[in-house]
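Usage

Read records sequentially. Each one opens with the input sequence:
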Amino acid sequence: MRAYPPEQASGEIIAVHPIETGLTAAAHAALDGRQRGVRAILPFIGPAFIACVAYIDPGNFATNIQGGSAFGYNLLWVIVVANLMAMLLQTMSAKLGLATGQNLAELCREEFRPAVVYAMWIASEVAAMATDLAEFLGASLGLNLLFHIPLIFAALLTGVATYLILLLETRGVRPLEAVITALVGVIAVCYVVETFLSRPDWGLVALHSVLPWEGGRESVLFSVGIIGATVMPHVIYLHSALTTRRIVPRTEAEARRIFHFTIPDVIIAMGLAGLVNMAMLYMAAATFHARGLANIADISSAYRTLTPLLGSAAGIVFAVSLLASGLSSSSVGTMAGQVIMQGFVGFTIPIWVRRLVTMLPAIIVILIGLDPTRTLVISQVVLSFVLPLPVITLVFFTRRRDVMGALVNRRITTVLAAACGAVIVGLNVLLLYSTFGGRIPGLV
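and closes with the structure output:
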């Protein structure tokens, strides 16, 4: 639990120091009741928008487009369920950092034996690498499709661009949040345009958003991939780090108020990410599946097919959204990798070194000629297998009053989060069983 100075333990609120300006001053004005309404919420908006980028990364493009073209609107319910999971887990992650002043990886290092911690670190680094592979390839594909740059040169340009975005962090948290939020806005606007152009069947969208369906082993693979692409393990670690020192509570009562201001941040950001994911899938369903094009197996094919079906604007908008997604999510993925390493093993490497190292898997995929989209889908399945680790540890810590203090989970929160973990593990077991020849009633 975060330690509060003795003079603040009674709930007394210390006035803002005269030289205190910017984000902290605006936040304290809201907390002290000197700012109300929408302007009171604004200082607390930002961390969830950085986290939500990982929920609309190029891996989502791959799984949603393939899922929509192959199964139509049928997998929309998976996106809805995955997004509700994401809202709950990211809220708990933000609360953990706020209540303890530490991120999830740091708490794991304090709580568990070194051998367990190192195993968790390796698994989390694998997840971060799988994530960055998808994000980096996506941005490179976006550049390649828009400007016809050879993929290898597009990858090098992506590395430079994401590094420049990461350098904004040296100027404070707000510039980086502003750029990431702007890129999220670009993605959202692009899918508003795609929705207008593709003209989905809104009755089917509504029906399959709430009607569970699984048609076979391949659809299970896509369901697991969608969850792996939507509920991202690395940003569970990252979100807890983003809230540790951004606005530091001066009392436990103030921590509760900050948390209440944090909830709209999560709902707005994750809600937007969920709508974009649904738009990706129903666009593919309306454009490809409805025309009998169930074999749109990669992002490049989707781009080339959109133009003759919906016009050149559709293809360009699609590529722009892919580029914005790749640049923003790859930057966030690198940030998450730093948090994971620092938290679990207590050291960091220069950001340019991590950027260079995490580029290598994508460069190798490009050089040896692997299908980038298939690689993206497999990377999302890998993420889903790693996902139970941060979910279980997050529940473990947030249910403990000695760790969380006044922000400890309510029982219903713990039950719902445990259910999320059970669903993820269950889908993974189902996928493994069916992959190795097991027969499941109702699946073919």
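Summary fields computed downstream for this record:
- Residues 8-20 have pLDDT under 50 and may be disordered.
- The chain is about 75% helix and 0% strand.
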